[in-house]
Amino acid sequence: MDNNSFKKDVFQGLSAEQKYLSSKYFYDDKGSRIFQEIMQLEEYYLPECETEILVQQSGEILRQIPFDELDVIELGAGDGSKTVVFLEKAIQMGKRLTYVPMDISGDILEANQQHVKERLGDLPVVPMAGDYFVTIKELKNREKPRLVLFMGSNIGNFQGEKSIEFIRFINEFLKPGDFFLMGVDLKKNPHVIRAAYNDEGGVTKRFNLNLLERVNRVLGGDFELEAFEHYGVYNPLDGAALSFLVSLEDQDVHIDGQQFHFEKYETIHTEISQKYSLKELDQMAVKTGFSWDRHFTDSKGYYSLSLFRK
Ligand code: AVJ
User: Average pLDDT per run of 10 along the chain, which is 310 residues long?
Assistant: First the structure.
């Protein structure tokens, strides 16, 4: 991530009427490590649900996909530790795959390749580091049928129409008959969702505050971390879990010669984690140009792997 665009985004976000910082900046080395901790939390049910579906239903998902040979393209692949379960099943079923993991971080893609090598030996892997909006275009001329994976409920970070635009972008990349498999956190008991973003141990708080630390580290800011608090809410009316940082004092912060004023209890909006119902997902599939969809949910009904076909 280059510091100039980070700085530009931070200045823009902190100058807005309602201050905001983009959740994409959570994931520097430290933030990525804290996110690994979040994934181990009792309260943060998402990874466990997704793994349950992959372990128990990969075969059923793959039976919907009638290709013997295909490219499996994963956006934001991370270390691939969960995806191997799915890839392994596909190979067992006799499918000839090429796995194309994409991620911003080249380092994590190396870990990904290690994982895949250990578990799946000679599976052809074509890792692509960089912004997937850019790198995916390089695949346009490949002939084989496609399955695009977008796991981990990352779709939740897109606000409103942005999620529709994103899925349309995937749809435009696909050829008729191709598939898109997306991990989605579902609407459920609001207490359960609220707790997932307000863990007892304060890991989510550290994750959120790391954004300010990153501004201090990288842009030479002087945020006092003790003067800000984490606040997570879930609103059942629209299914949005929102995270904020709350200024506990009337204070000024300086970043590279620029001053930003915070009134007492003024907030910085840092993340949206949108939750969906299966009905809403059906509507999204239609809106984004898919003609068929099917949902694979965990035993609690907390989470869905939703398969869309063009
Ligand atoms: C990685 C975007 C799915 O929104 O649940 C976890 C990130 N934020 N705890 C989510 C996150 C706070 C996570 N996603």
Answer: 90 98 94 94 98 98 98 94 95 97 89 92 93 92 96 96 97 98 98 98 98 97 98 98 98 97 98 98 98 98 98
User: Cα separations (Å) of 31 from 34, 136, 174, 195?
Assistant: 5, 26, 32, 20
Q: Is 210 in the pocket of ligand 1 (CB under 6 A)?
A: no
The pTM of the full predicted model, rounded to 2 decimals, is: 0.96
Q: Side chain identity at 256, as an amino acid letter?
A: D
In the reported structure, the alpha carbon of residue 188 is separated from the centroid of ligand 1 by a whole-number distance in angstroms of: 16
Q: Based on DSSP, count helices (H) and strands (E) in the chain, helices before strands.
A: 10, 13
Tell which atom from ligand 1 comes closest to the C-alpha of 46.
Answer: 5
Which residue from 37, 193, 271 has its CB within 8 A of the most atoms of ligand 1, so it is best to mutate? 271
